[in-house]
Prior knowledge:
Layout lengths: L22 H13 L4 H7 E5 L2 E2 L5 E2 L1 H6 L15 E6 L5 E6 L4 E2 L4 E2 L19 H11 L9 H6 L6 E4 L2 H5 L6 E4 L2 H12 L11
Parallel strand pairs: 8-9
Antiparallel strand pairs: 1-4, 2-3, 4-5, 6-7
Amino acid sequence: MTFAIPQSRGEQPLGLESIFYTQFSEKFRQECIEGSAIAPSLFDTAISFHSDVETDFGGEVRYPIHEALNWRVTRFGHQARETLEGAFFQNFDGSTWQLKLNNPLWDRKKQKTRKYESPAGGGSKPYFPLVPQEIVDEIASKSGLDAPHPKAFWDWVSENPSLPIVITEGGKKRLVPPVPWLCGACPIREGWRLYQQRSTREPDPTPSHS
C-alpha cells in the first residue's frame, strides 16, 4: 500500500460521539461550514466535540481530551476551574488526528498560543477523515470509477493513481470540498514523501465506469 493509512477496526464505532452542543461547538461549526465552505455532511462525520470531563450512561467518568492527546490526567478535586472543550478532527478509524481547544494553550517555545493540539508522541501523520457516501459517490462519478464504501475510501484513493490529489497543511483545508481534487492534510515533509510514493504507481489505463 502506498499510503500509511490507519487500519480500520472492523465494526467498532468510528470515534467518539458528540454528546453536547455549546457556544464553542456552534461557533466552530459555523466557521468551518460558512467560512471555509466545508460540506455539512463531511463536517459531521469528521469532527466531534467533547469536554475534558464527561460521564457516560453507566456513571463512569471519562477524559476524552486527555485520552486523545495522551495527556496525564490531573485531579482537581473540588477546585473551581474553567471547562476545557475540544473539536476533534478524527480519522476514519476513529483515532484523533488533531484537536482544537476552546481555550488555546500557550506555547512557551514559540511564545504564542497554539491553534491545534496533536496527540503526544504521535509524530507527523496525514489526516484521513471519514468521507460520507454522498461525497464518495460524487468523486467516483467525476472520475469514472466505481464508488467504494466510505470505510474503504482512502485505500481506494491509494490504489487509483488517476485520482488527482493536492497536498495541503491544516485540517480545515483538508475538509474543503474534495471534488474535483482530493486534498491530503499533513506536514509538508510527510506530504512530499507520500506524493513521491504515490506518483510511482501507474494509473489504470482502463478504469471502470459507474
